[in-house]
Amino acid sequence: MAIEQDVDPDPRPSGWHALQLVALPGDTNQHGLIHGGWMVGQMDMAGNMACTRETRGKVATVAIENIAFLSPIQVGQTVGCFTRILGIGRSSVRVEVDAWVRNLDKEAAWVKVAEGLFVFVAIDDNGRTRAISR
């Protein structure tokens, strides 16, 4: 039996821990699981926070290139979003956002539940694109 090279034997979150919150009953779909749209919103906020920090100013989401949902999220789980800046252009920033969950009532490890690639653009106070100072 061959061992897959891409499988991490001890997966852990990496990057900047931009956001952490608890999934609540009001965030569920008709099946009692956390709604995917809610998760996208949290990942977008985490990406926004990371890019605001990187650009030292306002940013706006211009694209979500990809989101993959890997596992359902249960009510009561702690959700953490971790970000990694992948590239900075003249006015745009590409950021990878990974969402992980764990149970508060146990000494449980983080489990990755979603991953996405977001693009933000730096904006000025009038909402116009601005160059990112370096």
Q: Order of SSEs, N→C?
A: EHEEEE
State the helical fraction.
Answer: 10-25%
CATH architecture designation: Roll
Number of domains: 1
Question: What integer value in Å does the Rg equal?
Answer: 16 Å
CATH homologous superfamily heading:
Hotdog Thioesterase
Number of strands: 5
Output the CATH topology.
Answer: Thiol Ester Dehydrase, Chain A
What ranges have pLDDT less than 50 throughout 5 or more consecutive residues? none
Number of contiguous helices = 1
Work out the oligomeric state of the chains in this entry.
Answer: single chain
Residue-averaged pLDDT, rounded?
A: 92
- Main beta sheet: 5 strands, antiparallel
Q: Which range does the strand content fall in?
A: 35-45%
Structural class call reads: mainly beta
Read across the widest sheet, the strand sequence of neighbours is: 1-3-4-5-2
Silhouette: elongated
For this structure, what is the CATH class? Alpha Beta
Q: What distance separates the N and C termini?
A: 50 Å
Report on this model:
With 134 residues, the protein is mostly beta strands. It has a single domain (16-122), classed as Thiol Ester Dehydrase, Chain A, CATH 3.10.129.10. Helix content is 15%, strand content 40%. It has a five-stranded antiparallel beta sheet, with helices on one face. 26% of the residues are buried. The model has no long low-confidence stretch (mean pLDDT 92).
